[in-house]
Amino acid sequence: MTPRTTARRRSCGTRRTSTTAPLRAVSAAVALLAGVAPGLVAQRYWQAKLYPFVFYSTIDGFWGAFHYGRYSPVGALERPEEHLASLGFDAAASTQGSYRVIANAQAPAWWEGWRASLTFVAARANRLGYYGLGNATSYSSDSIAAAGPFYYRVSRTSLAGRATVQRRVVGPLRVLAGAALEHSDFRPLPGPSVFRRDLASGAVDPATVPFTDKVLRAGLVFDTRDNELDPHSGVILEALFASGTGYTRTTADGRAQLHPLERLVLAGRLAAEGTGGNPPLAAQQEMESSERPFVAVGGYRSLRGYHDGRFTGRGKLLGGVEARYVVFAAPSEAKLKIVELKLVAFYDAGRVFGPGETVRLTTTGLHRSGGVELALRFLRNSLTVVGYGRGSEGGQLLVGTSWSY
Description:
Structural class: mainly beta
Number of helices: 5
Low-confidence stretches: 1-23, 29-42
Oligomer: single chain
Strand order of the largest sheet: 1-2-3-4-5-6-7-8-9-10-11-14-15-16-17-18
């Protein structure tokens, strides 16, 4: 039986611009793939995608974007990966001044038992949320009326490179090793803001703005999902440790999918993360994963219905459940449908922990949200999700190219 491995899930979250160097590195990665396995390359083929698209975000307004990719499909093989290997280049810019440029090379199934990824990201999140540090930070619409629209906002610019290698140990268990280099900077937006106040008071250490982070990562990944992009059954468990510049990070994440009825998939997630040392603001705003870090707590990948980066802290706790029901599928007799349209209902919960607090499983202090989504899967490597989530402070339009978890 072919061992199952997992590939990077695409995310809608903001990521990090010099495009020349990233593309050279990506080309070198492809040359390495071809050089190491010339016999295999001769038996495989590549397909290309190029398309522009436009979408709308509650936070950043309208986005204009395009995607170019080359990928080697798995063909008729029954594997959970989206493809054997891929190259991708994405660029997008919003009407609110945000942008992202991503160049990546992925090899989830090019070599049996191995998977590798190399990613370069340049991005600016020009309306990222910053409400202060800690789980009890307050939000007041009166503050926005008095101080201006950017009172709870900050502009974050990032430039990052990230490499990851995974090796299957036995069955669905893999060992992971990786490294990352990231430079991040924060800029106050016009007018009074919580970030400007915390930077002046020292609550946000001025020595960490800007900040260059050098990270080494290691961990274990246990993955039994039947399909990585759109799983119907299986679990993925991650235990990760990272050592950054002046701090450490320990992450545990579990996601499961059940298929009790032909048209229904139930999914759940429980994740926790703690840090040691003195993590900078940039690290406190994100949560680690085997794929790429994502903004937490608040946003599509962590707490839907809340603004990206709504809660910031040294420790994090996330949980969620959702039901995905197929309302249309074609062809109806095929095991793997060419097209599936799903209606999704979800419930998310999460919180952060401040200095001196122990990260623990608790229902105290949880922030909760719920909502609905429509998801369209086309073939085995394309998924688009749109929806609406609502928490105690209002709601957010949701757009993603992968499941939230």
